[in-house]
Design brief:
It is a multi-pass membrane protein. Belongs to the binding-protein-dependent transport system permease family. One of its GO terms (biological process) is transmembrane transport. By secondary structure, the chain is mainly α. It contains 14 helices and no strands. The longest helix has about 35 residues.
Length: about 270
């Protein structure tokens, strides 16, 4: 390894370690008593593992239900949005139809509009459908996301048209070509989109806060935020809740990091 590469690797490694320090501090504090958390100077590592914070979180709070709600909403919303985004991206990349460029421009333009600007009319629509405090309200409005279409369009464009034409000569219809040929080839991009969407929907605090009226319908993000607002001197409980809300994201990234890395690298190069 050349010296400049060694220096760059050392710098990147140090920055990676620094970026992990807040997470490590969060987890270690979740294993301390409230008194130890407020202690000055603080202990870097807990003197003993204090698990009562997690016991209180899952015994005295519906944390398991919050966790289920978060996983259910995030997985269902992510899965459906990836399917819809893939189909739309394939249509824009490979099919020919009237107004294609104009429609795609509208899709791109919608990315520039913050969700907060239309959250009030969207809320009124959900209320009119009587969906408040239901899974439909947490899932369906988030399916109309255009980022995935923009991201996956370049992946489908990089696939040679000869593959699609050969499949058509063999008698395959458009749905078969999309499902059995195009999707497997675009798997790296789909994996990267899955991670990005899952993290986005998991952390969609504002919309989940508006839609979840009962404590049982809260997601983990909203439920943990509610602990922060309660008049409760147990800071360890609140830190444990924050740790539980953060750990699933780490697990998801570890499981899908191969697809995420390949997807980002493939998307940066267009053949």
């Amino acid at each position: 390894m050349e010296k400049p590469d060694l220096i760059v690797n050392i710098i990147v490694t140090l920055l990676a370690i620094l970026s992990l320090l807040p997470l490590a501090w969060l987890i270690t504090n979740s294993l301390k008593t409230s008194a130890d958390i407020y202690k000055m100077p603080p202990d870097i590592l807990p003197k003993s593992l204090y698990l009562d914070n997690y016991k209180e979180l899952f015994n005295n709070q519906p944390a398991l239900r919050w966790t289920f709600n978060s996983f259910f909403v995030s997985f269902v919303t992510t899965g459906l949005s990836v399917i819809f985004s893939s189909a739309a991206a394939y249509a824009f990349a490979k099919l020919t139809f009237k107004g294609k460029n104009f429609l795609f421009t509208l899709f791109i333009g919608s990315l520039m509009i913050p969700k907060e600007t239309f959250i009030v009319p969207l809320f009124k629509i959900v209320v009119a459908f009587n969906w408040v405090d239901t899974y439909q309200s947490l899932i369906i409005p988030n399916l109309a996301a255009c980022f995935g279409v923009f991201m996956l369009k370049s992946f489908f464009e990089s696939i040679p048209d000869s593959i699609r034409e050969s499949a058509k000569l063999d008698g395959a219809n458009e749905l078969t070509i999309f499902w059995k040929l195009m999707l497997p080839i675009a798997k790296p991009g789909i994996g990267a989109l899955f991670i990005l969407n899952f993290v986005t929907f998991w952390n969609d605090y504002l919309w989940q806060l508006l839609m979840a009226r009962s404590k049982e319908m809260n997601t983990l993000t909203v439920g943990v935020a509610g602990l922060m607002q309660e008049i409760n001197p147990n800071m360890g409980l609140k830190v444990a809740g924050a740790a539980v809300a953060a750990l699933p994201m780490i697990v998801i990234f570890i499981l899908f990091q191969k697809y995420f890395t390949k997807g980002i690298a493939a998307g940066a190069v267009k053949e």
